Amino acid sequence: MTSPDAARPRVRLLRLALRDFRNFERQDVPFPADGLVVIGENGHGKSNLLEAIYYLQLLRSVRGARDQDLVRFGAPGFHLGATVARPPGSVGAHEIGVGFERTGKKKRVRLDGAEPPRLSDALGAVPSVIFSPVDVALVAGSPAERRRYLDVVLALTSRRYLSALQSYRGALVRRNAALRDAARTGRGESRAAVWEPALAEHGAVLWVERRAWCAARADAFAALCAAIGERAAARMRYTSALVVDDAADPVAAARTALERALAEKRLLDVKRGVTHAGPHRDDLELTLGGRDLRLYGSAGQQRTAAIALRLLEAATLRDASGCEPLFLLDDPFAELDARRAHRILELLGDAGLGQTVLVVPRATDIPAELTRLERTTIRDGVLGA
Ligand SMILES: Nc1ncnc2c1ncn2[C@@H]1O[C@H](COP(=O)(O)OP(=O)(O)OP(=O)(O)O)[C@@H](O)[C@H]1O
Predict the structure, then answer these.
(1) What total of structural domains would you count in the chain?
(2) Which of 79, 162, 189, 201 is at 20 to 30 A from 125, Cα to Cα?
């Protein structure tokens, strides 16, 4: 593996303080510069630790859990505090604190002691990517998994996308509520139509940015799958029912097309109580040798494509922030053959390998490439126990 380039800028987690988060009562964890390997039996808190670190980026659970479920059983709330080192000249806070109280469901963020005007201003505070065996759902799961992947990657790296996503979701909830109302009362179709300009305006941004990202990264996806060990050609493509004319201003063209599609489907929407047209129905098509990986891929091929998606995510974060993100590895090589695991670590190394936190059930699961990292153990939510 290429040795990490010391000059490459990286974000580094120096310390993480966990209070009543999942099965951690009170832990202060120092992180060495290159990273840490955490060894512990099943169910002792390894994934919880990675979830806590990732929370500092997304301000929500990477596993899709609700905030109240992250609070240690019986505790009133949780708090995470991190100290981060950044390369000279890069922007971002050095002290990040996130707290959540069960009563009132209040979430508070502090960046260097100050509360940002909006929660979303703190998104991406600690850039990181998680690699985990459950990532296979990105490939084998429903289109919703892949849309969520795109939404996370793009919302973390494009302010315009984040803002459009928030507005689009708000308008969609309201239009669907109006549709259900119209279906029940037999009128009020116009109340659903009211939300269509907003859906078209913000949906167009989602559509354009998703397509642009997929087009820009498609070759890299194919190259990564090949480098990991696929012999057939892998392909990634954004698919959408929306037909948009080529235009100098693609957002304006997508907006017009979406407005038309929403109007055309309105009667059907009223009948079914849901919105049929829009980027919330699109997908990221992944194929190998021309065949849908979701339907025909082997478990190993699906894992490979999922890892390629995570590597693309890391590259996107790197391009946006200029820094190497943290790599959080949740025993990701468990079911892969040694050759593939080795190639993936080589690819991670080629990217400059940011600070790495690897969690594994046994010391024998640590790949040779990462045996140089410091080690600790975890038992019942206590590190170093
Ligand atoms: N809100 C919570 N409060 C207290 N404990 C919790 C909470 N949520 C989950 N747990 C506990 O955390 C443990 C699971 O931790 P985690 O998912 O990190 O396991 P792991 O070490 O990664 O295991 P595996 O190797 O099986 O993936 C379980 O014992 C579960 O009961």
Answers:
(1) 1
(2) 201
Q: Residues with beta carbon inside 6 Å of ligand 1?
A: 22-23, 40, 42-48, 69-73, 361
Atom of ligand 1 nearest to the CA of 69: 1
pLDDT range class, residue 5, cuts 50, 70, 90: very low
> What is the Cα–Cα distance from 304 to 284, expressed in whole angstroms?
16
Closest Cα to atom 26 of ligand 1: 42
- Domain assignment of residue 134, yes or no: no
Give 144 Cα–ligand 1 centroid separation in angstroms: 25
pLDDT at position 359: 96
The alpha carbon of 383 and the centre of ligand 1 are apart by a number of angstroms equal to 14
State the Rg of the chain over Cα: 22
Note whether residue 283 is domain-resident.
no
Residue 98 predicted with pLDDT over 70:
yes
Q: What is the pLDDT of residue 351?
A: 63
| Cβ burial, residue 178 (10 Å; 0-12/13-18/19+) | buried
Q: Which residue range forms the structural domain that includes residue 358?
A: 1-127+327-385
Q: How far is the CA of 23 from the centre of ligand 1 (A)?
A: 6
Question: What's residue 137's pLDDT?
Answer: 96
Closest-CA residue, ligand 1 atom 9, reads 22
64-68, 102-106, 236-240: least confidently modelled range: 102-106
**CATH code, domain with 378:** 3.40.50.300
